[in-house]
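Hi W., the nicotinamide-adenine-dinucleotide complex you wanted:
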Amino acid sequence: MTYTIALLRGDGIGPEIVDAACRVLETIGERYDHTFVFKPYLMGGCAIDATGVPLPQETVDGCLAADSVLLGAVGGPKWDSLPGHQRPEKGLLGIRSAMGLYTNIRPARLYPSLAAESPLRADIAAKGIDLVMFRELIGGIYFGKRGRSEDGLTAYDTEEYSVYEIERIAHAAFKAARLRRKKVTSIDKANVLESSRLWRATVAKVAEEYPDVTLENMLVDNAAMQMVKNPSQFDVIVTSNIFGDILSDEASQVTGSIGLLPSASVGDSTRGLYEPIHGSAPDIAGTGKANPIATILSAAMMLRYAFSLETEAKAIEQAVDAVLAEGYRTADILGASTAMPLTCTEMTDRILERIG
Ligand code: NAD
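Structure:
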């Protein structure tokens, strides 16, 4: 089978880590008899430099025509002084919206071999973390009405959700829970916000269609606390755009390294946008220090969610597990280890050896 993948390498370490993931996909293609056709497009700072805008129409068209999209990261100090609507990150919001990607899926796992890197207390880390967060991505306060009063002394942003928007992400979360430990924690602020009360009632209604899955509701302030106190309790989390933004960063930190965590943004179709959760790391771009694992695991998520290639996705994940268990480290996850840190290319080589 042939799959066309649009590549948005982006800025900073983006090109290095996307190329690493492409090498892994090529090896998977050879081993399991698939053809991956890679089509690169510009987005972010590199697009601004070449075309004057962060998201050229050609990029939108290319992503919509592809079977899936793999993204590195965008942004960097070179473009920091540009006004908001011209900045590289605008490309990211634009492509998510153009592709109708309303669900952001972020797994967070604490690898036993990296438990010492977690900022959690050892007895809490020992219980492990294996959760996946479903964050609503194109609604809520980030997209609601906003403004300032004429005198500039007051500003407002609006949190607004419809039943339809809540239902579609709740279904995605419950379906995922069925394939995992069958528990959904819905996070809101229903003791204060009307939009959260609608969220809670709607999720409860959706839950009736999944009697085999347990639903738990949690207030966001408690959830932030539970994430460091007892994170092993979480299986699938479903939450709004802003709460998910904050909690998913917290979840990523308790696992120890930002360089390990993948993500997927999906909508109604199987086409999605797959990307590491970290940024373009301009401080290490071009030094070979980038950890490619988050992007390689994002490619694994693409195989699973976009192409239903579960065996192939697992082959990548198991190769990553094996390499980490054997003690191979890039500089960002070196911790107290005395091992020589591997470069981006060397880490990719080790992973390829365990796949091929
Ligand atoms: P960052 O995630 O790029 O970097 C934070 C720290 O983590 C840095 O020290 C960096 O070296 C390290 N790091 C990140 N990824 C790594 C990897 N794969 N391997 C090893 N170390 C890694 O966050 P930042 O510094 O706040 O942002 C830098 C730029 O990235 C900014 O322009 C920001 O807007 C942009 N950004 C883009 C995205 C995206 O494209 N999705 C997300 C976040 C930030």
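The chain has a mean pLDDT of 94.

W.
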